[in-house]
Automatic annotation (TrEMBL):
One of its GO terms (cellular component) is membrane protein complex. GO terms for molecular function: ATP binding; ATP hydrolysis activity; transmembrane transporter activity. It comes from the Bacteria. This is ABC transporter ATP-binding protein YknY. Residues 2-225 form the ABC transporter domain. Pfam families: ABC_tran. The keyword ATP-binding applies.
Amino acid sequence: MIKITNLHKIFSTEEVETTALNGIDMDIKDGEFVAIMGPSGCGKSTLLNILGLLDNPSEGSYEFYGTEVAKMSERQRAQIRKGNIGFVFQSFNLIDELTVYENVELPLLYLKTPPSERKEKVEAALTRMNMMHRRNHFPQQLSGGQQQRTAIARAVVANPKTILADEPTGNLDSKNGEEVMNLLRQLNDAGTTILMVTHSPYDAGFAHRIVNLFDGKIVTENIHI
Ligand code: ADP
Ligand code: MG
């Protein structure tokens, strides 16, 4: 379970102070699929980055599976980022110089997984995302849909409890977008908790719950299981 309470995030530069998050409370149960929606600039990515331990809140608390994130060492946080959370971004974020196989293998290298287990896990993730036949290709040789499937394979290879996806279909046509959403739904059906930022009401329809943000606050929540 993920629990955030009275979360604030203020970005300060010399000239301006931006309140990106202004008091967010959220409980996310294991196995839930939550969509976060709202206009550009309302704080969606900031919220996802904090949930993914990529950034720290200015105020408020965040419990990740029972442990207060603020009390963790940087090492513990890094370990959670690598082993317990899978990230999927709009821009795929693959490494151009690495093949599909090598991109998917990366999290396991960080986790120091032994080679034979690594091979088994990478091949399982590639098979699940229907990318085995492209394993030796480089990202630039793939369609957008294939790149995102590779990114999802990388996100799931270490079998994380939670996947955070920031507009995962934002750069895809509708057919590839639907395929990516079906893959996310299959992962959720198999028990993975998913938090997804999206602009698309169609994609949000895959979630159990839609949280609408405006100006750094939750304005409405719709539940539609
Ligand atoms: P969304 O993802 O909903 O479009 P963001 O979470 O990216 O919105 O941004 C929320 C607000 O915080 C915006 O006003 C944005 O300009 C500001 N912001 C985001 N990241 C930073 C940063 N690193 N430094 C300063 N301001 C930021
Ligand atoms: Mg964003």
